[in-house]
């Protein structure tokens, strides 16, 4: 097959792959939690006398020049073009209604002009008052993408920031994955110098270590999404869609690879005390969100747990994220925390599993 034919077939291949990813995550045929997040080892000390008005607890958080009603980010989700468009519209409605941040999935297909994936100006019209984050893959930065493509990703949805997602494990185990990663850090540095909006660097489920976070901050990246292990295992997802037993076995061996989310948050905060940290990866509910904030996150991201509701309707997505916010508020109330600053200092109980828990500030 000629290179021209390969390029012609590539868009439909990418769309089909992303549709497969969505089906596998929704079906829960892969466990998605081969490693614990570490949140299970963190337990708040209950305050039986909170001396607070529940409804006046302040969950607000500033992010990218806007004030969120709660410290939540609807993390990047993806799918084939038609499904992605529906999901993005529902999530934008939910984000605007609840005044929380929203990140789109990979914009590669849209950037290359093959389908909009619901990623147009209508997304900003649906969510005019909340931060929206664009998204491209780090591997594309050494495969031809540069400032023009990044600007296109930002401009098509009038984004407040651009996510560069790091997924080396997924690419390594994926059939036909992008395995050329030399020069990615330099490419991120070049983008940061040229783009008119902040860069956010995130993993996709294997975690960012303190050492890698420090390298990113040294080139000027100030927002890091740890996206730790304990949520969707993309190695397990790729094992599900592998074309043969050999590729399936190779991918499956790495289904428990990564830095648990709780440990990643703690370590990135230790190595990069001034960074803005997004804690994501296996965040199931508002209590996990509270624990992520206590460990050092400034904002908490959730993706897979809200995916089924997002595909269903905007109302279902609103209901889902409303419950997360209410659970977070209850955690604040029952720790006597009037706001997020107080929650970050809330007392914790020693745990029988303390040997497996991250050290706490």
From TrEMBL:
Q: Which residues bind substrate?
A: 17-18, 106-108, 170
Which biological process terms from the Gene Ontology are attached to this UniProt entry? Answer: isoprenoid biosynthetic process
Residues reported in the UniProt entry to bind Mg(2+): 171
Task: Tell me the InterPro entries matching this sequence.
Answer: Aldolase_TIM, FMN-dep_DH, IPdP_isomerase
The question of whether Lipid metabolism is a record keyword is answered with no
* UniProt domain FMN-dependent dehydrogenase: residue ranges: 185-346
Which cofactors does this protein require?
Mg(2+); NADPH; FMN
> What compartments host this protein?
Cytoplasm
What's one Pfam family the UniProt record gives for this protein? FMN_dh
**Which HAMAP family does the entry mention?**
Idi_2
Against NCBIfam families, the record matches this protein to:
IPP_isom_2
Tell me, in a sentence or two, what this protein's role is.
Involved in the biosynthesis of isoprenoids. Catalyzes the 1,3-allylic rearrangement of the homoallylic substrate isopentenyl (IPP) to its allylic isomer, dimethylallyl diphosphate (DMAPP).
Protein name, please? Isopentenyl-diphosphate delta-isomerase
Gene symbol?
Answer: fni
């Amino acid at each position: 097959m000629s290179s021209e034919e390969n390029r012609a077939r590539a868009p439909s291949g990418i769309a089909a792959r992303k549709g497969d990813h969505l089906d596998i995550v929704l079906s829960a045929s892969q466990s998605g939690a081969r490693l614990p997040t570490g949140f299970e080892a963190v337990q708040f000390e209950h305050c039986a006398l909170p001396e607070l008005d529940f409804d006046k607890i302040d969950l607000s958080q500033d992010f990218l020049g806007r004030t969120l009603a709660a410290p939540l980010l609807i993390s990047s989700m993806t799918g084939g073009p038609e499904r992605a468009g529906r999901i993005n519209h529902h999530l934008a409605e939910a984000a605007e209604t609840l005044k929380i941040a929203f990140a789109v999935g990979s914009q590669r297909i849209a950037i290359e002009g093959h389908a909009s994936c619901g990623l147009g100006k209508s997304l900003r019209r649906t969510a005019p008052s909340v931060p929206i984050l664009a998204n491209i893959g780090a591997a594309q930065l050494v495969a031809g993408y540069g400032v023009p493509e990044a600007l296109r990703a930002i401009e098509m949805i009038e984004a407040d920031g651009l996510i560069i997602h790091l997924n080396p494990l997924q690419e390594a185990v994926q059939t036909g994955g992008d395995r050329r990663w030399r020069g990615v850090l330099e490419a991120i540095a070049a983008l940061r110098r040229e783009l008119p909006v902040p860069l956010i660097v995130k993993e996709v489920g294997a975690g960012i270590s303190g050492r890698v976070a420090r390298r990113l901050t040294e080139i000027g990246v100030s927002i890091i999404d740890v996206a730790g292990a304990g949520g969707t295992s993309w190695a397990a997802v790729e094992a599900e869609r592998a074309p043969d037993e050999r590729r399936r076995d190779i991918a499956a061996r790495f289904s428990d690879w990564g830095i648990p989310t709780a440990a990643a948050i703690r370590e990135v905060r230790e190595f990069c005390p001034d960074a803005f940290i997004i804690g994501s990866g296996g965040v199931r509910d508002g209590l996990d969100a509270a624990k992520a904030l206590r460990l050092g996150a400034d904002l908490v991201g959730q993706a897979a747990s809200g995916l089924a509701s997002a595909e269903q309707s905007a109302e279902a997505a609103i209901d889902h994220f409303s419950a997360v916010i209410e659970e977070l508020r209850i955690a604040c109330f029952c720790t006597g925390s009037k706001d997020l600053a107080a929650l970050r200092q809330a007392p914790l109980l020693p745990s029988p599993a303390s040997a497996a828990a991250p050290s706490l500030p």
